Amino acid sequence: MLFDLDKQSKRRFFYELYLIAVIAIPMMVSQLAQVGTGFIDTLMSGWAGKDDLAAVGLGSGIFVTILITLFGIPTALNPILSQSFGAKRFDVMRREAQQGFWLCAIVGAVGIVILLLLCIPLQNILKWSEYGVKTTVWYLYAIAVGLPAAILHRAFQSYAAALGRTTPVMWIGIIGLILNIPLNYIFINGLYGLPRMGGAGCGAASAIVFWFNVIGLYLYFIKNKYFRQFELNRDWTLPRWVDIAPILRLGLPICCSFFLEVSLFTFITMLIANSGVQFVAAQQVVMTIGSVLYMLPQSLGAAVSARVGQSIGAKQRQRAYYISGVCVVVGAIGGVFIGLVLAILRVPLVSFFTNDAEIILIGANLLLFSAAYQVVDAIQTIASGALRGYRVTVIPMVIHMVSFWVLGLGLGYVLAFGFDLGLYGFWIALMLSLTIAAIGLTLYLIRIGKCRITQQFVR
User: Fold this and answer.
1) pLDDT tens-digit readout, 381-415
2) 3-state SS string over the chain?
3) What is the pTM of this model?
């Protein structure tokens, strides 16, 4: 079995849980702060008006699709740096980090180009009011400026997680979240001589916060006593293919996995966009709530990736396998709790964002679906993180492809439009797709963990 409490002492369990929590809790708070930026954008744009809420909903969905897809590259740094850190190869780790940061900067620049090019067809596809279309496009223009910073910030998070010190990531993230509130208010309402931007102002505020986060964290790395010993600033070189290639080999399948998952929600939003603003707005509210609660399994996934990587680097393969089991079990328990909270508080949660009765009704119904898949979503997220710690990413990508696009999007389209279930058809298929992903990834994690213990390197 992956995890059997009867055969492992409680002391060992709680010790490993403590080491995971040291990384995961600050990461969770940091990511909550980052997601909180979108939460505040949704909340404040909703106060500005229904069209502003829908514009920010669609615009942020497109932005997040690109951003999370590109997050695969900085996410790959976590196991790479963790294994070097576990093996105490600090010079190698520094070179890998520097080359990874170069690569993330390049990826961020490419992301800007992609985002701006998408604005052209978007203006022809949308059948909204002129104000709604204009607000969506200007939101994307504004937030695109912050995309490279967001990519680099995730790379810095991976660096901190690999070194086992994520507290500075948390505090800088909290400061950035607080900063986003007055910036939103200024840009939305056009204060201090600035033009009134409405929902588009949320994009400008978010871009500034992204840059604040990455600059603040970099300065901490080069000034703090603990991080300074690893000499991140020493011997910088230009990007070198020999160092970048391993990051790409690991990161590109992660990019694909991330795209398959996040694009599922974005394409659902786009497919139902012309069904009515109320459906887009309701889905955006539910996705915002879900993204906040998703930080628990996501932070556990990042932590288990770091801890498994450190254990593999230190040649402690049995420990890496046990750590994976601890995280899967804890994540499943957390998923039960989150699901209950969503089911019980679904109406008040949606009402917090809007007073529109139709949006509240649709959103509350969607939260029931969300509550139902919390456990399997947590399991598949954590299992993916553990596999990344083993530096295994190709098969997980295939599992995600079948689960999210064949079942989630394909079956969802049939249910939504073939059986006239509308938006709810997509969410039924979503529950099924996450369940299949959880089963497939967990079984593969068990296989990889056992093979690594016996030194049978299976991909």
Assistant:
1) 999 999 999 999 999 999 999 999 888 889 999 99
2) CCCCHHHCCHHHHHHHHHHHHHHHHHHHHHHHHHHHHHHHHHHHHHHHCHHHHHHHHHHHHHHHHHHHHHCHHHHHHHHHHHHHHHCCCHHHHHHHHHHHHHHHHHHHHHHHHHHHHHHHHHHHHCCCCHHHHHHHHHHHHHHHCCHHHHHHHHHHHHHHHHCCCCHHHHHHHHHHHHHHHHHHHHHHHCCCCCCCCCCHHHHHHHHHHHHHHHHHHHHHHHHCHHHHCCCCCCCCCCCCHHHHHHHHHHHHHHHHHHHHHHHHHHHHHHHCHHHCHHHHHHHHHHHHHHHHHCHHHHHHHHHHHHHHHHHHHCCCHHHHHHHHHHHHHHHHHHHHHHHHHHHHCHHHHHHCCCCCHHHHHHHHHHHHHHHHCHHHHHHHHHHHHHHHHCCCCHHHHHHHHHHHHHHHHHHHHHHHHHCCCCHHHHHHHHHHHHHHHHHHHHHHHHHHHHHHHCCCCCC
3) 0.83
